[in-house]
Each structure stands twice: as structure tokens, then as C-alpha cells.
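User: Some background: our group keeps a shared notebook of sequences we're curious about, and every so often someone picks one and asks for a predicted structure to add to the entry. Today it's my turn. The entry only has the sequence so far, pasted here. Could you supply the structure so I can complete it?
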Amino acid sequence: MPVFVADELLDRLIEEDVPYGDLTTDVLGIGDKKGKIVFSTREPTVICCTEEAGRIFRKLGGTVEHMVPSGEYLPSGVDFLEVEGTAKGLHAGWRVSLSLLEHISGIATRTRKIVDSATEINPNVSIETSRKSFPGSKKLSIKAVLCGGAHPHRLGLSESVLIFKHHRVFSDSLKGFWSTIDQVREKLPGKKLTIEVDNESEALTAAKAGIDIIQIDKMPSADLKEIIKKVRDVNPSVKIAVAGGITETNAAEYATTGADILVLSSVFAGKLSDIGARIFPFD
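Assistant: Of course. Here's the predicted structure to add to the notebook entry:
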């Protein structure tokens, strides 16, 4: 996946786990012995961050002999990363790489399940993730989302215009707020305007104002179909995003509403992928 992960992040991951060397390997006197580590799936998994795991081992003197690229959906029992090196290097990279692979592949796998579930109902619906990844993990989380077949809804506050009620409360009046929309368009003619609403009245007002994307927040799927129809009757070109509480269990249900975009954060938390690691010496 085309996500650049800086060496600084990988160095920090190594430093967190091996700040002063590996006491066990040192005291056993096995550090210079040669061996191999092999990572394998223990369940169907969208593998993610094999490239970063390989780079970690290279930093520790290892040689990558086999690597399945990120984004592959593998069945259980597949060896997807093999590295040769010294016992010292293999043990130093073992746990940090395993933790990285299990956490990030977990996000990728949950994402793929939601994408498959929703697009089976509506092939044109876009699955997009919110900014609620764990602080400091954005680069890796975004890579997982892309590997799972989804896209980030927003990468941050700098590149898109999404107006929340927390912005609107600073207007002198509701009427005054809507009068500023044309000014925003003039300032940023190359940007789409998105506004979040939480009821039918606000959605219809936004449609009449010519907002590009209306994001409907925390509304049951059963209520959305009729509201989306009314909004499109007012403005056929508007795009509808729905957000709030969308998970693997109900993504297909929300896909039936006719929404163009499902915005969710549920992929960022959940079960780690079950990945095994075997270390053995050369004969």
C-alpha cells in the first residue's frame, strides 16, 4: 500500500521493546547463532504491515527471504514472512513485529469484512473511516484501512471542509450561518462542502442550500431511507454520508438506505489477528 512510514517510527517501536539490549539472549550466550523466524496466519486474515516488519528485521541485521505484500487476504496456515539472521536480531524483532502485524492486520481484516458486507448489498457504497484511530497510530491505521478496501473519510482538519454543529454554535443565528455558505464557496471553490446534521429538518435545509455532501449522524437505518429520498427530491446531485454506530453487524443494513458513504470508526478497535511466529536455528 502506498503509505510512507518513516524510519523514525520503526526505530521508536524497536527502542520501546529493546531499550538496553536483550538480557535473556545475552545471558544465554546465543546471540551470534544463526536462525530463521517464520510468521504464519492462524485464521483468515488480511495481512498488513509485512513491509514494515521486514524493515524492522533489516534494521536488526536480518535478511528477508520471503514476504507476502500487505493487502493479501490469506487463509489460515499460510507462511507469509520469513527472515534469516542471528538469534540476537531475531529475538529483538520478534515481539515488536508480531504485535505490529496482529494489531494492524486486525484493523485491515475488520475493514475488509465490512466492505464485503456492505458492497454485497450496494456495490457503489463507499466505506470511509473517521479520524478516531488511536493517537500516534494514524499512518499504520490508514494503511490497514486501505488494505481492507476502504478509504479515510478525512485525514485531518487541514484538507477538507466538514461543518459540525460545534462550528455552527459560534454563528449569531441559524439564518446567519446559512448566509455564510456562499462566502465559503467563494473562498474555497475547489473544495466540496460537507455538513453534519442529525435530523430531517436540518438535512432538507442543507439540501436546499446546495451543500455538496450531507452527513447524517446517529440515525437508525430504518429512518434513513425516507429522509434520503426527501433530500434527493430537493437536490438530486447531493451526496449522502451516514455516520455513527456502524459496525460489521449492521453495515449491510445501512447499505440498504441508499447512502453514498458509510462513515465509521469501529474498525479501529477489536480483536487482534491471530498470527503465529516460529523461530528455529540452522542445522
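Suggested note for the entry: The CA atoms of residues 217 and 238 lie 16 Å apart. Residues 87-121 form the longest helix (35 residues).
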